[in-house]
Amino acid sequence: MKILFVIDTYFTHNNGTSISAQRYAAELRKRGHDVRILTAGEPGEGIFALPYMHLPIFQPLMDKHNFFFAKFKGESVMNIIRSAVEWADVVHCFLPFMLEIVTQRVAKEMGKPCTGAYHMQPESLTANLGLHKVTWLTNWCYGLFRRKMYDGFRHVHTPSKFMADTIKEQGYKAKLHVISNGIQPEFIQAGKRNVSENDRPETFPEYKGKILIMMVGRLTREKQQALIINAVPYSKYADRIQLLFAGHGPMQERWEKLGQKLPNKPIFVYVSRDELITLLSQADLYVHAADMESEAISCIEAFATGLVPVIANSKLSATTQFALDERSLFKPGDPKDLARAIDYWLDNTEERLRMEKIYSESAENYSIDHSIDLFEEMLREEIADHEKSK
Questions:
Q1: Which residue, among 147, 148, 167, has the nearest Cα to 157 in the 3D structure?
Q2: Whole-model pTM?
Q3: Cα gap 132→222, rounded to integer Å
Q4: By Cβ atoms counted within 10 A, which residue in 23, 129, 369, 390 is the most buried?
Q5: What residues contact 185, with CB distance under 8 A and at least 6 apart?
Q6: Over 90: is that where the pLDDT of 132 sits?
Q7: pLDDT in tens, 28-37
């Protein structure tokens, strides 16, 4: 198949949706498909490049999050969009923004099959604007996305059952395909070495004698790294806990300042995949404190390598689905309850080691190979339904 991915920001490694698009494109190409990207950026092989759109009021916020919108108006821009759609056998739109909306309309005009994905929680948008408690605004966003874009799809990919259930409740009528964004085999292989063969890498000198607790993700308000920092003083192991946050984002400076009160100052790193696997393989526990998640691949990667996760039991997060029992859950926004959950697993080393193996094995259900199988099925189903509709 000739598959066109439509996504405003593709060239970044600090955005879950962009990373998912990159991984899906790579895996689909391995299977012989021709995948090209319609996105903002510079021209390159396999890229239909559009100019960046500058937003005078919101651009500083966009820059902090390393997210960029593509231009979607003008004769030259529309010519690129039409050329991209004309080339494709099927079009797949990742986000509910104007580039994707316009491309969907062009695909319909040109008689091309088109599918969508629901990765963007409106709650994440409102949280970054400081308006996460304004419920009516969140519901308005769900309705706007549905009317402007998702009502026009027969098939929509959601990365979790949680997201599928959420948008069903908001009146979305397309057939929903629950497909994990998928983890790479290197994480699963590392987990087998770590928990089955007991072949973990040697601990880095700076972590020896300490309890290494990690979280992976962008440093933003909704990811709640501050909650983990605030929980440490309530733990009986506070003097030994070393927090390590893998990621970067607009809140790093604030979280660094907050962490100055801890016996061991938090460490902030931004690392490659292989470096991340090495760090996860040395850690003692993984905490995922985010209030809002459509899936949280970083959490799957962590327990795939052999870490027991401690997860915020938030009604707005799909990550709770990964907890195998209540011992891996804590009350969202409650640092004392997080410390309680951390201390339980640190107190019960033998049980933690037993559950590390079970969690690692459960991650095999989220392999990217399986996800690509399901994604191919969705695209073929859309192509078949499109032919029937003619």
A1: 167
A2: 0.87
A3: 9
A4: 23
A5: 367, 368, 369
A6: no
A7: 999 999 999 9
Count Cβ atoms within 10 A of the Cβ of residue 52 and give its class: 0-12 exposed, 13-18 middle, 19 or more buried: middle
User: 141 and 126 in contact (C-beta within 8 Å)?
Assistant: yes
Question: Under the phi-then-psi rule, with left for phi > 0, alpha for psi from -120 to 50, and beta for the rest, what region is 28?
Answer: alpha
Nearest to 216 by CA among 19, 357, 21: 19
Which amino acid would we find at residue 114? C
Residue 219 pLDDT more than 70? yes
Question: Mapped to the 3 state alphabet, what secondary structure does the chain carry?
Answer: CEEEEECCCCCCCCCHHHHHHHHHHHHHHHCCCEEEEEEECCCECCEEEECEECCCCCHHHHHHCCCCEECCCCHHHHHHHHHHHHHCCEEEECCCCHHHHHHHHHHHHCCCCEEEECCCCHHHHHHHCCCCCCHHHHHHHHHHHHHHCHHHCCEEEECCHHHHHHHHHCCCCCEEEECCCCECHHHHHHHHHHHHCCCCCCCCHHHCCCEEEEEECCCCHHHCHHHHHHHHHHCCCCCCEEEEEECCCCCHHHHHHHHHHCCCCCEEECCCHHHHHHHHHHCCEEEECCCCECCCHHHHHHHHCCCCEEEECCCCEHHHHHCCCHHHEECCCCHHHHHHHHHHHHHCHHHHHHHHHHHHHHHHHHEHHHHHHHHHHHHHHHHHHHHHHC
